[in-house]
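Dear colleague,

Following up on Tuesday's group meeting, I ran the structure prediction for the two-component complex that the binding team flagged. I've pasted the input sequences exactly as they went in, so you can double-check that nothing got truncated or mislabelled along the way. The structure tokens for the whole assembly follow below. Feel free to forward this to whoever is handling the docking comparison.

Inputs:
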Amino acid sequence: MTMEYKAILLKKRPTGDFTPDCFETTTLTTPQLSDGQFLVKQTHMSLDPAMRTWVQDNPDSYLPPVGIGEVMRAFGVGVVVESKNADFPVGSQVYGMTGWTEYCLGGEDMQLVPEGVSVEALMCCFNVPGLTAYAALKKTKPKAGETLVVTGASGSVGSIVGQIAKYQGLRVIGIGGPQEEKIKWMEEELGFDKAINYTSPTLKEEIDAALPDGANIFVELTGGPAQHYVFEKMARYGRIEVIGVMADYNKEVPALGPSWVQVNLKVLNIDGFIITDHYDEMQECFDYLAEMIKNGKLHYQSHYIEGLDSAFKGVHMLFTGQNLGKLIVKL
Amino acid sequence: MTMEYKAILLKKRPTGDFTPDCFETTTLTTPQLSDGQFLVKQTHMSLDPAMRTWVQDNPDSYLPPVGIGEVMRAFGVGVVVESKNADFPVGSQVYGMTGWTEYCLGGEDMQLVPEGVSVEALMCCFNVPGLTAYAALKKTKPKAGETLVVTGASGSVGSIVGQIAKYQGLRVIGIGGPQEEKIKWMEEELGFDKAINYTSPTLKEEIDAALPDGANIFVELTGGPAQHYVFEKMARYGRIEVIGVMADYNKEVPALGPSWVQVNLKVLNIDGFIITDHYDEMQECFDYLAEMIKNGKLHYQSHYIEGLDSAFKGVHMLFTGQNLGKLIVKL
């Protein structure tokens, strides 16, 4: 049985912002399955800042760029609707790389959604955002009593970084927003010691005031002016984990980084993080976060938008901080 | 017995370049020795780019700043001329922190010059430059077959970094100069695979051409445009060791560094190095370099200037690349 479905292709590479003309909606036909294959109807599609790097023609990046005319890459959750693979029977819920599409063939990276885990928890905590936060923080060797600053702190990854750090006894300063409700959420629900709005006109002064003894760890997700202000306040032997530089992904020429003079004098370490190096920590991360949830120490928020085409405006929301929680397209 | 001697004090902190009015020559009197003390007549005083950082009022730096009115800090070699310490009898040759002075009291950090080591080899290779080069390179975990770029490559530290890397089977690109004889020296005597003049108008093109597969390791000593050009050519999982940013020490506002976008996408690591963290590797380093010298694999050059006052012009030579080899003031 074949049927028609909607998918969105990458039509051209953006030079700055994602614009709708970078994409093209098309109608495709589901294939006849061969042995071992299974067909997935996507139900939840994740929108992530990393998408901007996936469409960049950068041969050195950690994933090959999405090809022109190919279905745009995404992580998602779906249901198996047809199967010639006994491990993935019809009706089972799976997650993995799906793409901007209503249907897709189950790929090698697809896995069954573990029992007892809700789709929302899976998308908000366990998979990409959770493993990113968990493994990146672990690389910085955090110690109880240290002070950590995280940017993008009200976002899906940053909010988990901060909560794990609090759980491990660190002092946590979150820079996020811009909505006042996100600032409140960080201080009142997530328990951060201080939440700072990244759009504040007194951003530098607030960062300085929050770091009387400097920052031991800086988990960077956004770039922008906060990068320089936090960098200036790094304590000796400070560790910086660069998970992303969201403010710069849309720029043709990214903003320069801080001078290396202090890297030398303060013996700092600036380290790059990509999730693909850390898939072997998935189980350990899963166990850790599940325990935090059980103890009521891991909070998350999702922000749903509806229908495949909503992805066009969704990718913009990410870069302007409009989403209130993990951005998920419901299909 | 006391006598008068000349010393140079730090009079004020420079804002940009070291200028002669930052210093003041004074006449002091040698003290009466207490038990355990010894008096050193300095014979060789080292001039190092790090001096610019030692006079900066930066409470976070790895050494406390030299105080206003204090003798300017320096590393040197001297002879014990009076002693109430049996471990350092009159006539023994010692090295350690001496200062810009003709005489000084032997401090805790002073050691006897090991037998069989010439003062020139000690100052050029074994002590500060050698340990810096050895320990910094070791931090980058070099592997035979990898490509290493070093800036300040014709200087005292950079030339040793490059030679150790060659000795360990790496491909070495040295960026140094500006004199043509330094370029020749790097390629013909030190055996670097390519030497590039940092003042070349085609610096970027030459760096690009020398790195068809990118750089795995970048040992940074100078800053300046080369920093950005080499950074752009870093290979995935590249390691950068920041020993110094000499071009920026004299600037009130140091030049910005490269964007962190590639730190993330190429999984780079930028690490700060200070020698004070590595004194425990001194013996291991000494043995390693001694073996290289025995095998004819470690070459060095010294550049002597005469008399304590020559330090005024000497510190300038360092920042303009005028010295041909390790700069030493003979007293």
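The first strand of chain B starts at residue 4 and ends at 10.

Cheers,
M.
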